[in-house]
């Protein structure tokens, strides 16, 4: 990995101007079990900033350590002491729920590159909050649709017991038409899944849907492969993304997962992103890296039209989403959440690298289920 401009340390400030006109505060997870996700968001975001060549943007980066209280403290410091115009970066939905309402109610814009809890898409929506990734349910809804098309009729489903986990199972059930062999909420950060795998084995399920991001997914997949249970598994990209696959290895081969992004989406922006990210960091980009890249480019596109100091004009520029996304077509719904295509992907091996290839579309031009509850 390079150690130049884009290899950032925790707490780093990136600015190419002594008098930066726009300050962006990024609070993300850079240490502990979820660090890979935050590092990828950060690296994708900063790649776009560097490629823009702009000298009027300052990015202040801090590590939330995956702790809500730390995230809140850092938020207060960035808004009150650093006087940031825009905030971004949070990976985890419980941290987003602790931070986002306070940010937007202080007249600061928040652009999420990842977490998309249902409350913030519905009753808790706000004109200053934009989600550039997805609403939490979306990839799980696509997995439910894929399960129907594959003929699964008796799924066992499990996820961690926190907002994104609850949204995950609700999303799967919203589109899945079969019966449930079992439904479990696990502990956030859990690493031993022997009891859950025993229940799956005895359940009579014909499929397993699970949402276990980061290290949780690595632990589950390895233990599942070692258990000898041969019930097919499927899930969202979060449990089969680029950083996770190298740790899981062959245990994930052939598994189908759902994502709004993959490295083989055929458009010039995505091809350039994949090539430049790998050249800069020495690794293939992940879903999270693409979301960081898109978030930065959305901000950059809005800054071409207006300053955050003119909140109304800047908000309209964000809503227009006039940028070239790695995903191709990109638009916001009325609650500032994406309307986008979600794909089914399969885990494959290319040389020594485990990665994904697109199988086909799971849901096309898909919006979230909560927009009608948003009274913006």
* Number of structurally distinct domains: 2
| CATH fold-level assignment of the largest domain | Rossmann fold
The main sheet comes to:
8 strands, mixed
Q: What level of helicity do the residues show?
A: 25-40%
Question: How many extended strands?
Answer: 14
- Beta fraction of the residues? 15-25%
Report, as a whole number of angstroms, the end-to-end distance: 43 Å
Output the radius of gyration. 20 Å
Secondary-structure blueprint of this entry?
Layout: E1 13-15, E2 22-28, H1 35-52, E3 57-63, H2 68-80, E4 86-88, H3 93-105, E5 109-112, H4 118-121, E6 129-131, H5 138-150, E7 154-160, H6 163-175, E8 179-186, H7 194-202, E9 207-210, H8 215-227, E10 233-236, H9 242-248, E11 256-259, H10 268-281, H11 287-303, H12 311-320, E12 331-332, E13 338-350, E14 353-366
Parallel strand pairs: 2-3, 2-4, 4-5, 5-6, 7-8, 7-9, 9-10, 10-11
Antiparallel strand pairs: 1-3, 11-13, 12-13, 13-14
Helix pairs in contact: 1-11, 2-3, 5-6, 8-9, 11-12
Summarize the structure.
The strands form 2 sheets. Strands 7, 8, 9, 10, 11, 12, 13 and 14 form an 8-stranded mixed β-sheet that branches. This protein has a 6-stranded mixed β-sheet with strand order 1-3-2-4-5-6, with helices on both faces. It has helices spanning about 35-50, 70-80, 95-105, 120, 140-150, 165-175, 195-200, 215-225, 240-250, 270-280, 285-305, 310-320; strands at about 15, 20-30, 55-65, 85-90, 110, 130, 155-160, 180-185, 205-210, 235, 255-260, 330, 340-350, 355-365. The N and C termini lie far apart (about 45 Å).
């Amino acid at each position: 990995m390079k150690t130049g401009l884009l290899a950032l340390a925790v707490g780093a400030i990136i600015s190419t101007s002594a008098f930066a006109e726009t300050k962006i505060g990024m609070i993300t997870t850079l240490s502990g079990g979820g660090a890979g996700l935050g590092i990828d968001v950060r690296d994708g975001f900063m790649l776009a900033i560097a490629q823009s060549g702009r000298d009027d943007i300052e990015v202040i980066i801090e590590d939330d350590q995956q702790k809500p209280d730390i995230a809140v403290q850092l938020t207060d410091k960035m808004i009150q002491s650093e006087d940031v115009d825009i905030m971004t970066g949070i990976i985890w939905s419980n941290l987003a729920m602790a931070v986002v309402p306070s940010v937007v109610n202080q007249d600061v814009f928040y652009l999420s590159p990842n977490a998309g809890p249902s409350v913030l898409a519905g009753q808790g929506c706000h004109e200053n909050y934009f989600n550039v990734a997805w609403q939490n349910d979306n990839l799980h809804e696509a997995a439910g649709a894929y399960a129907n098309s594959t003929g699964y009729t008796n799924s066992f489903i499990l996820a961690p017991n926190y907002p994104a986990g609850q949204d995950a199972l609700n999303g799967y059930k919203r589109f899945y038409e079969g019966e449930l062999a079992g439904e479990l909420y696990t502990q956030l950060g859990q690493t031993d899944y022997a009891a859950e795998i025993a229940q799956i084995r005895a359940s009579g399920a014909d499929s397993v849907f699970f949402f276990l991001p980061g290290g949780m997914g690595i632990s589950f997949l390895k233990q599942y492969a070692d258990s000898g249970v041969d019930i097919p598994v499927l899930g969202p990209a979060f449990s089969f993304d680029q950083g996770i696959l190298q740790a899981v290895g062959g245990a994930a081969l052939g598994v189908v997962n759902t994502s709004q992004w993959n490295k083989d989406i055929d458009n010039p922006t995505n091809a350039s992103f994949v090539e430049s990210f790998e050249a800069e960091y020495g690794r293939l980009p992940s879903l999270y890296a693409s979301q960081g890249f898109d978030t930065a480019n959305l901000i950059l596109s809005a800054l071409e039209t207006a300053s955050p100091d003119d909140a109304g004009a800047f908000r309209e520029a964000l809503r227009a989403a006039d940028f070239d996304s790695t995903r191709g077509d990109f638009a916001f719904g009325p609650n500032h959440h994406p309307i986008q295509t979600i794909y089914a992907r399969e885990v494959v091996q290319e040389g020594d690298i485990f990665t994904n290839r697109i199988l086909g579309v799971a849901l096309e031009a898909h919006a979230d289920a909560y927009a009608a509850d948003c009274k913006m």
